[in-house]
């Protein structure tokens, strides 16, 4: 045992000088990465200044650790595999930082890593296609990365080749070589120990503070810390929960319909007061909806109101069986997706809103409660609205065809959320301050915003036409609505006063495909009767279950 251990340590000592090129390469790559982050977060000081000392220490420790790991592996093939994995990992994080700093003004962290490495293969592809970085810049950075890897490797190869062609070394040379490698081995181990203790101390401080100082950590440390902080915040805010699951014993189906679609199209911040189909005073910004209403293909509900003025509560009470104004947490009740799944439906969530929403949000939990989900918008938040944001029509490419199983699909759209100036393609900018109709006087800038809002509604009208074209040949119930209405005293964009009885009003438009009307002839009459009374969106689960012949008896 002792002899084997001695033999192993001799092998480690021999590999220490052989892999010095790896230490140099890691230091070079990490330095390039640090310069990228410094250009974003610490422009006032030079790279070798006292301000950047924590980052330099962390970089040296990280490079030393990645250097020591392969030297401790005796098996040559395994050692080479580990070398390749380390180089690929560090290079990938560096390249990702180049992308993310240019796009999000933030480096690689766990909040960004989750959507990039999503389960949907098209998400990562769409993310890279949307960046549109300058090729000369990326080529220069790529050349730097290749030089950082292959220059130390080439120098190491030349030195080893020179040694092989050199004459037999003298005893003095052998002694110097033996002692120098031993000294290097001790320095590396002691240095890694000191730097590791310093790193653990920095990690503890950063995690306990709950704030990550990106300019004080190398890439792997930054990723590790961001993951810990993200999980800590999610646990503290109770964001990593899941709604209660409905059991098959609690769900019964009265009438088993042939395979059909139930589609919920939820567009943020679409107000009926500024839609021509609800308010004829405004510009004709809903031509498709108007024509479908005249033909009888659409049913418009005039007295539907959001479940709450709070967006999170409105979503919770709209998409679950939690009663409106209930003091209980909404996740103690099953969502409509759990109920429909127990009734034999496939459930699908398609989303063009940011992947991680600001503040308390229930949409991520609702999406996770579906059998499948797809996010076409990979941004982490609303922090930087640019023309790179996918338009809502990005969801059209991810719609699913009806097969042998009925499907409940939710399509969550940005609508008019946040900056409306980036919400639509240029060809839908139909209205301007000169053509925007309203019944009160507005200033020029206010008219610009009102006209752009009309354009957003006009774009939503066209998107609805494309959704109907996709589903019209299959049995489909399609419901278009907005989750939260206007609750302020003055109406957004138009500036006129909101009557108390209309506060929180939301649009709700119902479409039955011809095939759906054939398999359920009484369905249209049931929907027309809904206009006889006032509703809020917390009634939506019961409406969907009644239309689908589903009954729930919660235990």
Regarding CATH, which class of the largest domain? Alpha Beta
Estimated structural class: alpha/beta
Beta-strand portion reads: 5-15%
Q: What's the number of extended β-strand segments?
A: 11
Tally of DSSP helical segments: 17
Short summary:
This protein is an alpha/beta fold.
Task: Give your account of this protein's structure.
The protein is an alpha/beta fold and 555 residues long. It has 2 domains: 2-236, no CATH class; 248-552, Alkaline Phosphatase, subunit A (3-Layer(aba) Sandwich). 49% of the residues lie in helices and 9% in strands. It has 17 helices and 11 strands. The protein has helices at residues 2-18, 20-41, 53-71, 76-104, 110-116, 121-129, 135-165, 171-209, 219-236, 287-295, 311-318, 336-342, 363-368, 444-471, 514-519, 523-528, 540-548, and strands at 251-253, 261-267, 298-301, 304-305, 346-351, 372-375, 407-413, 476-481, 508-512, 535-536, 550-552. A 7-stranded mixed β-sheet has the order 3-9-8-2-7-5-6. Helix 13 (363-368) links the parallel strand 5 and strand 6 (372-375). The longest helix is centred in the middle third of the chain and has 39 residues, at 171-209. It is elongated, with a radius of gyration of 31 Å. GO terms for molecular function: phosphotransferase activity, phosphate group as acceptor. InterPro entries: Alkaline_phosphatase_core_sf, PEA_transferase, Sulfatase_N. Pfam families: Sulfatase. Keywords: Membrane, Transmembrane, Transmembrane helix. Residues 261-550 form the Sulfatase N-terminal domain.
